[in-house]
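Recall that a protein's primary structure is simply its ordered list of amino acids. Everything else, from secondary elements to tertiary packing, is in principle encoded there. The following example makes that idea concrete.
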Amino acid sequence: MSKNAQVYIDQLIAALVKNGYDVKQNLKVEKIAEVLQIANEKIQYAQFALSKSLEHIENVRDFISSPEKILGSPQTKHGEIAERIEVEIRNGRDILKNIIPTATFDGVGRTAPEDYIIDGTQVQSKFINGANKSLDHVLKHLQNYHGFTENGYYHIPKDQYEVILRIINGDNINDINIRTINKCREIVKQIENETGKSFLDVVKPGISTYKEVQLGNVDKTLGGYEKEFNETHRGTVKKISEEKQQKTIEAEQITNPSWGEALKYSAVSAVISGSVSAGIKIYSKVHSGRRISDFTLQDWKDVGYDFAKGSAKGGISGLGIYGMTRVVGLSAPFASSIVSTTMGITSLAYDYKNGKISKSDFSESACSLSVEAGISAIGAAIGQTVIPIPVLGAIVGTATAKASLEISKTVFGNKEEELIRQMQTEYDEIVKTLNSDALKIIKEMDNYFARLDGYINAALSKNSATRFYSSIELCRELNVPESDCINSIKELDDFMLN
């Protein structure tokens, strides 16, 4: 395949890489916007949920604000307070958990067998002073309402429930006398005999302790629940923020370079390069008068060999363009020109080392290959700075020689010092012929790439994506009008493509 054909193929792959990046960039923007929208909606709902949950606390406060309306004596009013707290606080917690509240007084009479309903199940609350006395009231209720536990159970103070569990488990309890312990065991057994069920299925702990529902303590109790609800809300918001941050990071990674993507573009490049190479070979055979139907096995071997060779080169080129564009952050056209030129000069270096061409041939051919790289270097270095037409040709020629020199240094390393000195001398002679206007622009370009450690280092440095933007500051230092400055990679791509 000719070097010109490879240049065009490299430009095509560069365009594919850029298009792929643009698609992913748009996808990233859309994903981040979606993440932010969902997070904002969740935070808004969390705030709404907090507001609704706090209303349930206020419902209890409204209830206890008129104690004369609560059934019982001052010593027994805590029973209805416990019921109210159980329903309202339970529902407030459910709302904060995004669960539909199921606790209700709806359809429950004040003298009904149940005090409230939770998730469709009847519940009778027994808040009596003393664990054995609460159990005794449970037993009496069972005896008065046979079959209640078919669709119901009992709540007792959670502190009493914990003591009863310790008694059932045979734990040592030093703060309760043996008579109370034995009485609790006896009633637990009676409850199980009466219902035919495990005590744990018949009696469950309420939300509150016996002390928390007393008239003198309930305000403090509600303050504690209010603090709990606010802390739960803060935890929810923190979780939403962390989730948003994580998903944003994941979205940012959509445009991150990967070996999988690199190999994909390498494969595409290989197919294109191989196809073109094979096509040229087939064309040359057909053009010589041979019909495809008359191809011999050797003809197809020739085509296959060219295809394999072209594919290998195309694959390497595709990887190079991908790496420089996506990892380093340079514009696709500039990356393509560097890859094309480097591969071409590498091929020339091979011919030179094997004696197929002379130093002069190498130098001239390298400059010919570097025209595109030189023009791209001018665009990358000085952006949209207007170059006077009379000096344009001199600048392009000098930049081309510079690109040829820089890339040749990289290809040869320290192995061909004499040849590099010769090319450096030729470049220096060209520079001497420049007028002041052209010389100024070339020096600006040289200074720019010197700050980026040269053409190749600019392409391969991990930091060059950031330093690439220094060209904006360079234009400003040269008093280029702001409207003429390139302020983004997209603007630079557009400029270099046009």
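Residues 331-498 form one domain. The beta strands are 103-104, 116-118, 121-125, 152-156, 203-205.
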